Amino acid sequence: MTEIEVTRGEGAMVLGLPHTGTFVPSDILDGFNDTGRALADTDWHIDRLYRGLIPGLTTVRTPVHRYVIDVNRDPDGQSLYPGQNTTGLCPVTDFDGVPIYAEGHEPDAAETQRRLETYHRPYHAALRAEVDRVRAKHGFAILYDCHSIRSEIPFLFEGTLPDFNIGTDSGKTCAPDLAGGVEAICRAGTGYTTVVNGRFKGGWTTRHYGEPENGVHAIQMELAQSTYMHESPPWAWDNPKAQGLRKTLTQILEMLSDWRPQ
User: Fold this and answer.
1) What is the rounded distance in angstroms from the CA atom of residue 131 to the CA atom of residue 12?
2) How far apart are CA 181 and CA 252, in angstroms?
3) Looking at the predicted structure, is the pLDDT value of residue 1 above 70?
């Protein structure tokens, strides 16, 4: 249940799927309260949303839920967004700021280190191996990190989140024309709103791997869940919305697949 799932393709692009898993080991689940057990902050259906859009993709997915450990957080525990509300390496609250553990069951430093070794590092070992593999084959690699989040979370941001949230750490993690191409497709999508490096500038994965000067271009796509699903339990897939979104996502992946460094 904790083995990293890797699908190897022959193209230059790797899709990261860090937050679609719902597996929680029983010893950790026993310490959750009802809020934690709800697993509300899953990136629901994201693997389904991207599945089969174009051939030749490599994907790397962890089945472990982000409440166990967030593989898109700095392993040293540094905040991605200093001064802003966020969740940490081993979250103790959900995205609404509500505790997810029964009192006294929060992970201590030793438990955090155990989860880091058991779940965080294996995911990144697999992701690094695939990025290095496709870069060796093509001379460059594109890491496209797949995410989604509820469109309204007052604890994390004001108002309603744009539909497409493109993150490149303020332009540091990929070539400008690569990010510009993604943005242009998003803005052309009928009825969608788009922002680049807004509230979400790319998590640790994007910032850690993105080294365009060394042939690795990383970009994070944070989708508002309202674009493809119902944003309340049971978090159901909305097929008409999802199929419309898949058309735009296909255009994005096709463009990235055809892209070459200048």
Assistant:
1) 8
2) 8
3) no
Query: What is the rounded (10 degree) CA torsion for 186, 187, 192, 193?
Result: 110
Find, among 138, 232, 245, the residue nearest to 185 by Cα.
Answer: 245
pLDDT in tens, 23-68: 999 999 999 999 999 999 999 999 999 999 999 999 999 999 999 9
Give the residues across from 14 on adjacent strands. Answer: 58, 143
Query: Which fold is adopted by the domain 5-258?
Result: Aminopeptidase (3.40.630)
Question: How many helices (H) does the chain have, and how many strands (E)?
Answer: 8, 7
Q: Which residue has the tokens 């593999």?
A: 133
Burial class (CB within 10 angstroms; exposed 0-12, middle 13-18, buried 19+) of 138: middle
Which one-letter DSSP state was computed for residue 207? H
pLDDT digits (tens, 9 = 90+) for 172-221: 999 999 999 999 999 998 899 999 999 999 999 999 999 999 999 999 99
Amino acid at 17: L
Q: Residue 194: which of 252, 260, 242 has the closest Cα?
A: 252
DSSP classification of residue 235: T
Instruction: Delimit the domains of the chain by residue range.
Output: 5-258
pLDDT digits (tens, 9 = 90+) for 2-35: 899 999 999 999 999 999 999 999 999 999 999 9
197, 171 contact by CB (below 8 A)? yes
Residue 117 DSSP label: I
